Amino acid sequence: MEKIKYLNKTKNGKGGLTIQKKKVLTFLTIALLTIAAFYAGYTIASPSNTFTISNGVYPGAASYTVWRDGNYYYAKNAYGAIDYSGTDAASVIQSAINACPNGSSIFIKSGEYEIKSEILITKPLTITGEHAATERYQSLYQVVWGVKMSVMTLGITAFHIQCDEAVIIENIIIFYKVINYAQPSSGIGILIEGTNSTNWNKQSIFRNLRIVSFWKGIYSKAGSAWVVDNCYIALNYYGVYLENIAYGDAGDNTIVNSVISGNMSWGYLVYQTSSGGLRIENSKLLYGSYGIYLSINSATSNLIVVGNSIENQITQAIHLDSSVLFFNVLITDNQFGGLGGGGKYIQISSSYIEGVNIANNVFRGTSGTSGTYGVYIGSGTSILISGNRFDYQYYAVYNYGGTQITVHGNVFKACTNSISGTVDSADNYSYS
Questions:
Q1: Contact 304/295 with Cβ under 8 angstroms?
Q2: Which residues have a Cβ under 8 Å from the Cβ of 263 and sit 6 or more positions away?
Q3: Start-to-end C-alpha separation, the chain
Q4: Which neighbouring-strand residues pair with 160?
């Protein structure tokens, strides 16, 4: 029996197809259109907010593209197919990360992503938001709307890096929404460590981020040679917290072109506890109890602080302390100002600290500010203070217990006491 019958025959004996044949043709047409759309880079999907991925054009280069549509989050692969979706943003992003090969990338479209659980990164990759989280750092409070990760669960870490190779995170706002600008006591924006207790994560880059209101904004638990570039890190109890860094030059970490801002009455902007070099350059460190606080408990070297604006701290702008050998410190070409009454711009407090060069800085004060110190040396050895300008300090240079202290070529304006204590002093100039 024939499966296809002709109806309404014409003069040549042919006619229209049966309903069964029409169904077969319709199915084949839809299948062919779907395959064509797949290879053309389009997705036939349920979300209303669909978009085209063009091969070879970013974000087409990404292994996954993540976006939000209403209360749902989606991750489509490089060919345009949606692999993961759901109402939990962290779960969708985590699934995309887990599926990516090493060295791949994830592109996140603009929107707010509510993060309720930790995002774990165990492989080298790049996570990029659609727009930079902030404009150039001089525009302190200018937010450019892009990708906002709103952390909704108390005490969690937003991004946890646990691998030995480089990870890049860029163009994302990471905001700890649950604490509402009060003094934070939990939660971490980015946690950096290696695969185990003896390894370090190496050469990661954090660029164009805005990290707000965590206990620790960036926590380098075991990281070396990373870079924080053009980031705005604000209202965290610890802006950047460093420990267990690789020793010496190989472990140098860099903060550059960034703003780290604290609260008016609490917080540490940069806090380091163990070995490894640190360079802070061309950045703004504003407010907080302390600007840079080093309390070192394992032998280290190489603190370089150059070309920054360090202002409005309550207690100290830079605090150097160590229970082991700590040498090679350079503090140069910085602008200090706005210190609280009785505070100290730079305090050196350990006989283990050797080889400090404080040069070409400006220490600003006002006639109405009382009891401030420019450089206070509780202890330490081989310290050179040269080419600086001190304005309206109660003590510009105060040596309480340091040895081999040299104070040469500085300018003291309207300081109550220019130099106090035993120092090698020459070519300094004082005027009222």
A1: no
A2: 183, 235, 287, 288
A3: 115
A4: 120, 191
- Find all residues with CB under 8 Å of 24, minimum gap 6, and list them: none
DSSP string, 9-26: --TTS--BPPHHHHHHHH
Query: Residue 89's pLDDT is what?
Result: 97
At position 414, the amino acid (one-letter code) is A
Nearest to 234 by CA among 295, 160, 284, 293: 284
Distances (CA, A) of 106 to 134, 176, 280, 416: 20, 22, 29, 58
Q: Phi-psi category of 71—alpha, beta or left, where left has phi over 0 and alpha has psi -120 to 50? A: alpha
Is residue 416 within 8 Å of 392, Cβ to Cβ? Answer: no
User: What does the alpha-carbon distance between residue 146 and residue 241 come to, in Å, rounded to a whole number?
Assistant: 26
Residues 303 and 318 sit within 8 Å (Cβ to Cβ): no
pLDDT, residue 39, reads 37
Digit-coded pLDDT (tens) for 180-210: 566 788 899 999 999 987 888 999 999 999 9
Residues in the chain predicted with pLDDT less than 50, given as ranges, are 1-45, 53-60, 135-142, 249-250
C-beta of residue 100 within 8 angstroms of C-beta of residue 138: no
Q: Which two tokens stand for residue 315?
A: 């207690």
Identity of the residue numbered 307:
G
Q: How far apart are CA 232 and CA 227, in angstroms?
A: 14
376 within 8 A of 398, measured Cβ to Cβ: yes
Note the pLDDT tens digit of each residue in 221-260.
Answer: 988 889 999 999 999 999 999 987 665 544 589 999 999 9
User: Within 10 Å of residue 248's Cβ, how many Cβ atoms?
Assistant: 16
CA dist 376 → 6, 101, 260, 389, 410 (Å)? 103, 52, 24, 15, 15
- Six-digit token string for 140: 């302190």
Three-state secondary structure call for residue 35: helix
Residue 370 to residue 365: CA distance in whole angstroms: 9
* CB burial of residue 290 (10 Å; 0-12, 13-18, 19+): buried
Identify residue 89 by its one-letter amino acid code. A
Q: Count CB atoms within 10 A of the CB of residue 312.
A: 18
Determine the Cα–Cα distance for residues 272 and 305; give it in Å rounded to an integer: 14
